[in-house]
Automatic annotation (TrEMBL):
MF (Gene Ontology): lysophosphatidic acid acyltransferase activity; phospholipase A2 activity
Lineage: Eukaryota, Fungi, Dikarya, Ascomycota, Saccharomycotina
Protein name as annotated: LADA_0F02872g1_1
GO cellular component: mitochondrial inner membrane
Domain AB hydrolase-1 as annotated: residue spans: 159-461
One GO term of the biological process aspect: cardiolipin acyl-chain remodeling
Gene3D superfamilies to which the protein is assigned, alphabetical: alpha/beta hydrolase
Coiled-coil boundaries: none
Amino acid sequence: MLSLCSHWRKTFTFCCVWNIINQFSKSVVACNSQRKPTSQPSSNIVFQTRSQKLRTIGVEEVLLFKTMIGLRHYSAQRPLPRRIASRLMRPPAGIPRASGWKLYMSHITGTVKPRMTELQNEIMAAVDVLGSKNQSVVKDEINQWHFHNDQAPIKTPTLLIHGYAASSMAFHRNFSGLSRQIQDLYAIDLPANGLSPSQELDIKYPEPLALKVNIKADKFQIPYTIEYLPHKCLVQNLEDYYLDALEQWRHDNGLGAINIVAHSFGGYLSFKYAIKYPQAVKKLCLISPLGVERNVFSVNNHWRSNTEYQLNFEDPASKLYLPQRPAIPNTIFESQTKLLRNLGPLGAKLCWNYIASAYSRTPSLSYKKYVFEMFYGKDGLSQISKDVFTGLFTNRLLAKDPLLDCLVHLKADDLLLLYGDHDWMNRRAGFELTREAEAMGIDANYSEVSSSGHNLFLDNPEEFNQRVLQFIAS
């Protein structure tokens, strides 16, 4: 009887999740069909590398061109729900199929850290470098890989920082190429991520009154007065969990100013780190960073209560900005990987199938298994990492303290925004950040890596390495 109840509970959960995915997908399609081209005049921005100016074109022209390509590509494919279902239900050819029951039974109890350690070692055994490669857990806090090459021409130490729900292993296809040119290359697992243990999260401030934004069509209101200082303090408190750990790591390694190359959520954190510790960062490369765009949820806006405001769906530099993509359902945003575990054997199989499909361009089977352990394992993603992330971002993946709002405080010598040419991240926000940084006198550049998406360093590692080395070597 208990077994039958468990079966129906898992079946009901799966149906609910599938309904959420289906509704979310329909909303995406509806938003794309309703999007209107901007009527604003084209604004020029310079595509640059560190060695030369390539060409000057309009932001809107570029985005319209890419949108046309994207729509043509989209129209030739199956509907979005069917594509998601295909990824979930069937891994690509050449990837070993997995038994959901075996995966589920092996992950009912216990920690996945020993298995992640084993897979990390398998991944790194296949990485060839000219110099040395050493793994350690610095002060029992930060899992790090250090690559040293005496013959490399770039002397400034360079740190690679991963994004959310990832680890240093995300850069395993880049270690060999980058370490040939960088004398001291580091890659770390952020605290409470990968194989770095969780440190205590000390919240010094009470949770403030939630910022509620009532959105109706193209307008919005704030129904009650918000004290913004408590929100700002809480955001800073959550950011400091990572920022102070990064600074302690730098001191523990005896490093001076470093170059930072950071992806997605790691890019967001690195930008804030460069602001808080300006003496610590020489060059900053943000790889498809999260949280760039200004938005209606920013703690810096100071909206008046019960006042109607006009939304801006086009310009990520406007504080009235709200992207037309739908919000992630709270059930998914707050539960995240717990949903997969609640689905039992079915969740384990769906998780493996999706990872195998999403990382189909990454040759390493050990890396796919490593990502599976992170996503499905009971302690693969720590609760602290989830709490910090959901505290810093809304369920629309908009930062509560956006990078564009903080740009005035950035003191880095050089800045590079690097995206994949098929990136789902808001590239126009990267354009705007580059433009505003240049206006401030920062040597800022924007570039894209071909044939790649959000994980551009995995999709096209050779071109990615070339762009990064060109930036930090100049």
